[in-house]
Predict the structure of NAD(P)-dependent oxidoreductase.
Amino acid sequence: MRRLVVIGCGYTARRFVALHGAGFDAVDVTARSPDKAAALAADGLRAHSFDGSSLAPALKEALERATHLLVSAPPDDHGDPTLRAARDVLRSAPDLAWIGYLSTIGVYADAGGGWVDEATPPEADSVRGARRIAVEREWLALGRDAGVAVQVFRLAGIYGPGRNQIENLKAGTAKRLVKPGQVFNRIHVDDIATALAAGIARPQAGPIVNVTDDEPAPPQDVVAYAAELLGVPPPPEAAFETADISPMARSFYSSNKRVANRALREAFGVALAYPTYREGIAALTREG
């Protein structure tokens, strides 16, 4: 019996369950609050509340019986909440064969716009990135200790239905910030789901894989392209240095790199449905 447990069933993990959950005999998911767990349950999922502090009996039983575990919950100030609460359970789970951990390309340091790949040592230049590096290592160590395949998926900026520049333009929140030379990788949420399914099918691939598109691009170009497809004027360009944005948003511009996805294509056998932002934005426009 194939049983999937998803820790942190947010935007990306929920999409994976929607597209590939039928490949499992049972699927258990978690949310941080009882209200969010109830919303997932209303969608027909077996949902548990898990705030990182302790395992409810039903969730503990699900983890003990799991064959596959997808961890989408981020680390907090004290490390990884799933490992804190469930490390011993996972070490002894008799049928657990695969763990997928959703990380970020933020583990790579600024490369001045140059290319990095899975062979590039992670040297995050932010506190958030450093936490991710530490947690990645903990999950890989758990896999070695327990004899379980662990794959770390380093994700680029995620977009997809309900979360994209088309929606931002319609809402009037899109901005065209310009920082000369700055580029970002992106990835459509459906391509992430495909990568996870490929990892489950090829558990010995990796264990590190960058899940990114083929064309790192300036963010203002993506907004302009979305506006062109909508037939609306793009918002005016604004200099990054003087833009009124949050400290969190500003921090993303502190690192400039192009992240290659060779392992995704060659080791995991994934052909991206949306290899650049153009295919992704165009598809979202057609979908309305």
Remarks:
- The CA atoms of residues 176 and 221 lie 8 Å apart.
- The first strand starts at residue 3 and ends at 7.
- The chain has two domains: 3-157+186-211, 160-185+214-255+274-286.
- The chain has a mean pLDDT of 95.
